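I'm curious: can you give me some protein's one-letter sequence along with its backbone structure tokens because I've never seen that pairing?
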Amino acid sequence: MSRSSRNRKQKSIHNVSNVASAARSNRSADSLTEGNNSEVENEATDLIDAIDSQLTDLQHPEPPPASDSLLQSLCMINTMLTQLNAKQQELEKQQRALERTRSELIPLETDLRNLERDLFARSDALDLQTQQIAESQAALEQRESKTSRQRRLIANQLRAQRAEQLLTAKKLDGEKEQALEQLRAQCDAELQQALAQRDVELEQTLAQREADLEQTFGQREAELEQTFAQREAELEQTFAQREAEQEQTLTQRVAELQQTLAQRDADQEKTLAQHEAELEQALAQRDAVLEQRFAERDSERDSARSQSDADLEQALATAQAERENARALESELDQLRQQLQALESERESTGSADVEEVATLQAAVDGLRCQRDSAQTERDAVQHEIDELKRQNRELASKLATQQVNVAGNEGMVSLESMSWEQRKSHMLQRLNAEDDELSDSEAAQQRLKIQDVIERTDREVSKRDAEIAELRCLLEQQSMAAGDMAIGGAAVLQMLDQDELILEERAKLQRIQGEWEEKLRQAEIDVSLERAKLARERIDIEQRLAEMREATKAEGKPESKGRKWLAQLGLTDAE
């Protein structure tokens, strides 16, 4: 028994030593692969140390007091081994998850590196394009300096040519006046002869036309008399036939109508009796319904009146705002008048027109014109709101009138039942007209007067602004005419330069080159913006994946990994 127990103990010790060595090897491998599982490793090391201590105790035992303690230690070792196996399985699972995350992150790293290369290449290309643009701009400036010198030379030549042309033009004007006087005398003589001949020809043609017309008129009169006599005979015959036929049909129709009238009288008496009974029932029901509707209509009328009052107050507020805008515009116009007076005094003292101030005044006038247009649109909007309020007032008045007519009908039901339908209809129409007259004479008249007053004020303000703008425009035209007399020579020189073929070709080339480079710049900006958007989308996708991975690791109980140093090196941290 002692030998068998010893053998068993030696086997168990050997197994425990094998398991401990395997745990050590797994622990070393895990520590080499990742340093993220510190808690699990600490527990595993504690268990392995405990097992090692027990193994040393078993390999170098002291004389045991009894076999029960050995059995207890073996049981503890077995439980520790089961715990080690469970921890080892957890470590393997975590290692597999880490490998999966690494395999997912590797292609993302390669994509980021490729994108960085593309961005560096495109930035180099953009730098080259900017250098080329700068060179082209320098060349353009040189060409412009050359063209300015050429323009000065051409202007001097044109001035000399113009002086010569003026001398020759004066000589030609005298010769042209003499030739024109001779031509006028010849033309007058020829025209008088031609008019005399034309008068004779017209008199002859008129005489012939009159004779022809008299002949045709006589022939037409004879033909018309013949046709008129024939037509009268035919009409007399047809009239006699029609009279006979109509007498026969009238007699037949009278007999038929007498029969139908007798039948209709009987039918109408029956239907009238039925209608009277139905009307009595309907009137009784209507009395009950009208009492309910009367209370509802009162509440609706009060709410509609309050709403119309609010709308009218809003319209008056908008009109007041327009009035304030008109006052502000008047102050601006006064300032502009003062500026114009100051400019006129300066122009009279110095004798030269300031083109920039004229341009500013023109801009100010344009601004006032825009404000005038906006005020006009606001006035139209206010007018539209006022029309809408009028329509609502008319609807309310019609509802009120119908309601009061219904009430009056209920009160005087006994008197209306004794009337015929025509009498009832005329009575209702009279009541409606009376109610409309009362409404139009009371509140509606006051509202209409207020609204009309607002509209007239806005019209006066707008007409006043139009008159002031017209005065400013006249002043600007006078100043522009005074400045234009001094700028005639420069305009002629510029016109001659604009007609030169070489200058036009150079301008066309410069505009074409400038358009090409602007198109290239726009395309480059579009490409860069597209690449930025693409990188932003990819970055957001990567961050979402990393966030999902973090949440998955937190849900599994793993601590957060420390392997984000490569993102910090690439400049893609969460702080950005």
Q: What stands out?
A: The radius of gyration is 56 Å. The CA atoms of residues 246 and 501 lie 95 Å apart. The mean pLDDT is 67. The first helix runs from residue 2 to 33.
